[in-house]
Write the structure tokens for this entry.
Amino acid sequence: MRQPSLWNPVVCLLLGLSWFSPASAADRLPEPIAAVLKQHGMSARGLSLYVQELGQPEPLLAVAADEPRHPASTIKVLTTLVALEKLSPAWHWKTEAYVTAPVRDGRLDGDLYIKGYGDPYLVIEHFWRFLRTLRAEGVESIKGDLVLDQTYFAREAEDAGEFDDQPLRAYNVLPSALLVNFQAVNFRFMPQPQTNRVQIAADPLPANVEVENRVTLARGPCRGWARNLGMKVRHNKDQTHVVFSGTYDADCGDNELFRVVSEPVPYLLGMFRSLWTDLGGRFEGEAREGSVPVGAQLLATVDSPPLADIIRSINKYSNNVMARQLLLTLGASLHGAPGTTDKGIQVVYEWLKQRQLDFPELVLENGAGLSREEAISARHLGEVLLTAWRSPFMPEFVSSLPISAMDGTLRKRFNGDGFDGQMHLKTGSLRDVRSVAGYVQDRAGRRMVVVCLHNNSRADSAAGQAVQEAVIRWVYERP
């Protein structure tokens, strides 16, 4: 419930000062937080805070709590909670293989159709298991092409580099009904001082991708392991050539770089060829998009892990494309295929209405937070967390959030001072945005809902992190 204005004399007269004082205290920025802002030369402008003890009727703190703010990845708590309640924690995605020609003596005399239903976690191990199932069905040699059916999701007009002009970054991958391994390659850099070189290993390595290593080893302190690296991607017909150049400081140790080096169809073709060959199969065809024909025979199917496990990856590691896959799945499953972003957003608003939650300032663009359009107030994000705590699926939801100093995006944060394991918090960060939302168990054993949305030109800097940590410390240490 929104608090009455401090300067409304009629409200003061009717309600009395005994009630009014706590509300004004809740509206005031605590001194320790104000002190950190002052220390770093920042104003409170753009900072919204909401803190409420579970089981209590009113917030302990509600500073600028009704102002719409960009939430960054903390909006994922809304998307994942809606999915839990509308789909159930046991929900599974499926991936299917179809044929229209017979398999004789291990030979498929026709095309192989693979139909995706939006599995957000069709990682390389699961895709290998899917192909292993095909081999177990007796398929060894495929005469035709690989036909990819991605019609369960609509093709929406988007550019992977539109958000920040970084189309090769894995966080910018666009959703797809048949998304294998997030369409990414993990490049691992391993300095070898004894041979004065840097080894680069790519995993997975699609059959149509080549890596050229021109990186030289440098001697000296590590000042940012990727600072002097260059990467270029060239496409030549069916092949992709990735060239790494520059220098790598030996003191930086081993590091990993996740990048998107090809479009979905070539990536899937390369992955299929590589894995199918490893499984002892033969395939000389090409890949193309198309629909499974009516009357095709279902040859194999594989299920994803349950939704309860999927949202752990989404929230603990803040996976944007998985969150977007989830939103499209909501749209397709509840409003019919093909799934679209608009249909998914409609499901979210329907859930809010069912829960009697009125969020007039809420703006959703993709449900992942990788957006300059999405907005919500700290109070209403806090209400989402309060609603989650009352949900029958509360254990699954809370366990999906990063644990302070232990895992996910909080693995290296809030170490010491008794904070270890005391918090389940979803983090968020964009340029000029830093946010956190979740649950904190304070030193007295009370559990608090905490939301901090900070939109400021320095919010994503060390100063912004200091402000956020001051908020968490105040919640944890207050009497």
Residues 1-23 have pLDDT under 50 and may be disordered. The CA atoms of residues 433 and 455 lie 5 Å apart. The chain has three domains: 9-89+308-477, 94-162+172-179+264-305, 185-259.
